[in-house]
């Protein structure tokens, strides 16, 4: 029997709002599994994203984050995400081969947008 990643789940202060933010930014649809408690964002490609309401989300740096890759110029996508409430936190490059930008969603969860340098 083979295992597959079905969902990546985020602990959230406002699970419903954060689920809708991710769905809007990455073309997903929101399903309410447990009203006020647990929401799932289904994406066309990749695993589902889960958002669970918790009283005290884990503080500090994420130990896990999502990486997205975009062909072509990533600047327009970065500007779109920042206008929607994401915060740019870092920029990196690996020579002329690749570059990536670290962003945070409205609750501070890190994710990266990568593209050609």
UniProtKB/TrEMBL annotation:
Annotated TM spans: none
Q: Which CDD domains match?
A: VOC
**Known InterPro entries for this protein?**
Glyas_Bleomycin-R_OHBP_Dase, Glyoxalase_6, VOC_core
Q: Which residues form the VOC domain?
A: 4-116
Gene3D superfamilies xref list: 2,3-Dihydroxybiphenyl 1,2-Dioxygenase, domain 1
Offer one Pfam family short name for this entry.
Answer: Glyoxalase_6
PANTHER family per record = CONSERVED PROTEIN (PTHR35908:SF1), HYPOTHETICAL FUSION PROTEIN (PTHR35908)
What is the protein name given in its UniProt record? VOC domain-containing protein
